[in-house]
């Protein structure tokens, strides 16, 4: 069943594009390296110029070194010169739940904009679409780094660099 609520999604993604994106995320899931959790995840991102990049989760015996499928897909895209995205689809083997990105991945997604689409999917291809900003309310974003600092810090930075 498709959830059609629009939560500040980017407009204009055709059904066939969404389907292609979801299929890529499902295919990427087949490559998941998850001997510890046995929890396979795949992700596929669509760049604004129409390129696709995929990723799967890659676990490690030193468990904190594992990386999620979403971050693999995004890092592959960024490492090949893409930083603007239309959408990401995430796939797992959970039959009854739409797979949802972890907190770390939500922060990773919002680094590249708050208003692009995240397709949370089930293996049958059904999906729920949410905007990145809806998944991470009150986020700390790249814009926060640029904001005006408090007066004394500004004065200090003038002292240091002025
Ligand atoms: Zn994650």
Overall description:
There is one protein chain. With 162 residues, the protein is α+β, with helices and mostly antiparallel strands. It has a single domain, classed as 3-Layer(aba) Sandwich (Cytidine Deaminase, domain 2), CATH 3.40.140. The chain contains six helices and five strands, in the order αββαβαββααα. It has a five-stranded mixed sheet. A hairpin with a 5-residue loop joins strand 4 and strand 5. It is globular, with a radius of gyration of 18 Å. Residues 1-6 have low confidence and may be disordered. Bound molecules: zinc ion. Residues 68, 70, 101-102, 104-105 line the site of zinc ion. This is Cytidine deaminase. Keywords: Hydrolase, Metal-binding, Zinc. Residues 144-156 have a biased composition (Basic and acidic residues).
Topology:
Elements: H1 15-29, E1 41-47, E2 52-56, H2 69-79, E3 85-92, H3 103-110, E4 117-121, E5 127-131, H4 132-135, H5 142-146, H6 151-161
Parallel strand pairs: 3-4
Antiparallel strand pairs: 1-2, 1-3, 4-5
Bound molecules: zinc ion.
Catalytic activity: 2'-deoxycytidine + H2O + H(+) = 2'-deoxyuridine + NH4(+); cytidine + H2O + H(+) = uridine + NH4(+)
Protein name: Cytidine deaminase
InterPro entries: APOBEC/CMP_deaminase_Zn-bd, CMP_dCMP_dom, Cyt/Deoxycyt_deaminase, Cyt_deam_tetra, Cytidine_deaminase-like
Bound molecules: zinc ion
Summarize the biggest pleated sheet: 5 strands, mixed
Low-confidence stretches: 1-6
How many beta-strand runs?
Answer: 5
Helix/strand/pairing class, anyone?
A: alpha+beta
> Mean of the pLDDT scores?
91
Q: Which CATH class is shown?
A: Alpha Beta
What CATH architecture would you give?
Answer: 3-Layer(aba) Sandwich
Pfam family, one: dCMP_cyt_deam_1
Enzyme class: hydrolase
GO biological process, one term: pyrimidine-containing compound metabolic process
Catalytic activity: 2'-deoxycytidine + H2O + H(+) = 2'-deoxyuridine + NH4(+); cytidine + H2O + H(+) = uridine + NH4(+)
